[in-house]
Amino acid sequence: MHSLPLVLCALLVLALAVPPARGQQANTMPGTWNVMDFGARADGKSDDTAAIQAALDAAAATGGTVNLPPAQYLVAGSLRVPTGVMLAGAWEMPHHGAYQVGTALLATGSRGNEKGPALIELSQSSGVRGLTILYPEQVADAIVPYPWTIHGQGMHNTVEDVTLVNSYNGIAIGPEGNELHLIRNVFGCVLRRGIFIDSTTDIGRIENVHFNPHYWPRSGHPGGADGNKVLAYMRSHLEAFIFGRTDWQYCTNTFVYGARVGYRFIKTEHGACNGNFLGIAADGGDACVVVEDMQAPGILITNGEFVSFGGDCIVTTPTYQSGSLLLTNCSFWGPIRHIARLEGKGAVNLQQCNLLQYEDKAIVAEAGEITVMATRFNQPHPALSLGEGVAAAVFVGNTTRGKAIIENPHKRQLKMSANVVVGE
């Protein structure tokens, strides 16, 4: 075997030692870009918006991953992630607000303007992963609005492994047309809106999302040091999960503590929601689930856990005119006023549920259709109160404490059978 000539070896070593030109990939694998090669200072004080955007634009030609090494990046503007590009930080999991380590974006743009561009605008088939996001100028004593932290549109927007330390508005998909979004492993504190979905015309997914006020106070950021003020603001303002038009929405293992509304189903100009909601939960707020409208196929909630502090866990409004809200194998406790307060002509079904704590009538139905089956009522208060607008009610196979009191002063159509009274 012949070795390379010494001169050729020397030339090869020199070629490898020459640094790449600005904007070329340095010490990275093909298909990846490092924002430091585009002039990012990563000191938490210099505005790195332009440098990060330059890296994203460079990746747009072929698609790939733009890496943000562990550091703090001040972003005073807005970032646009092109199609086929992932903006990736160093975290491979969400964490408890530790913005001092890992990859953190410090966002200051559009302070006081909810209508401004999002901190991160996602294009079709693009995503963000592995970031901590903090608004360093936000203080709990005087909370001001900001735009969405992340906004997506088009096919396949992906948000994974992200911690929102103190976002005013968290993540929005739509109202522009979109399909097949994936929001997974997102944790943090959100103040006004957590996740908003609209104009999704095919199967979006939300998995493993947890919102809790303590992500801000426990992060060490001085603006959120007073956790009681953070919680008070959320209980007065936060709508954690909002669903407008979304077809076949899947929502799994989600939680919020301290929201004014946990899950809100609305009708926008684009339509309303149908979907499958498994293992969802809301605690420590006012209304856990509010239904203003839905599509005819309905909303299925299974294995839910809901705790309201003095409010009503399940609320349907007079605008709820059609569809079916089905709650199966759910548990409710408090302190709580009513398990459910129902208006509108739509149907509500509770099956195999556990109604643990309530201070007044368990279910107050003013209108619509109500079915309660194989459900346990654990308080001696009236189980069901039927208003004049109720079209029909079914109460079958339930277990009640004390007398199974059904209030039906307007003689609405009511079918009862196989109910068991314990502890009279």
The total of helices stands at 3
CATH class of the largest domain: Mainly Beta
The 3D shape can be described as elongated
Q: Major sheet: order of its strands?
A: 12-13-15-17-20-23-26-28-25-22-19-16-14
CATH superfamily of the largest domain: Single-stranded right-handed beta-helix, Pectin lyase-like
Structural class assignment: mainly beta
Task: Please describe what this structure looks like.
It is a single chain. This protein is 8% helix and 48% strand. With 424 residues, it is mainly β. The chain is built from 3 helices and 34 strands. The chain has helices at residues 6-17, 49-60, 227-237, and strands spanning 32-34, 43-47, 64-67, 71-75, 79-81, 85-88, 103-107, 120-122, 127-134, 148-155, 158-179, 182-197, 205-211, 239-243, 246-257, 261-265, 273-278, 281-285, 287-291, 299-302, 305-308, 312-316, 324-328, 331-333, 338-342, 347-351, 354-355, 363-373, 376-377, 384-396, 399-401, 406-407, 414-417, 420-422. It has 2 domains: 31-285, Pectate Lyase C-like, CATH 2.160.20; 324-424. The strands form 2 sheets. It has a 13-stranded parallel beta barrel.
List keywords for this structure.
single chain; 424 residues; mainly beta; Pectate Lyase C-like; 13-stranded parallel barrel; two-stranded parallel sheet; elongated; disordered N terminus
Write the layout of secondary structure elements.
Layout: H1 6-17, E1 32-34, E2 43-47, H2 49-60, E3 64-67, E4 71-75, E5 79-81, E6 85-88, E7 103-107, E8 120-122, E9 127-134, E10 148-155, E11 158-179, E12 182-197, E13 205-211, H3 227-237, E14 239-243, E15 246-257, E16 261-265, E17 273-278, E18 281-285, E19 287-291, E20 299-302, E21 305-308, E22 312-316, E23 324-328, E24 331-333, E25 338-342, E26 347-351, E27 354-355, E28 363-373, E29 376-377, E30 384-396, E31 399-401, E32 406-407, E33 414-417, E34 420-422
Parallel strand pairs: 1-3, 2-4, 3-6, 4-7, 5-8, 6-9, 7-9, 8-10, 9-11, 10-11, 11-12, 12-13, 12-14, 13-15, 14-16, 15-17, 15-18, 16-19, 17-20, 18-21, 19-22, 20-23, 21-24, 22-25, 23-26, 24-27, 25-28, 26-28, 27-29, 28-30, 30-32, 30-33, 31-34
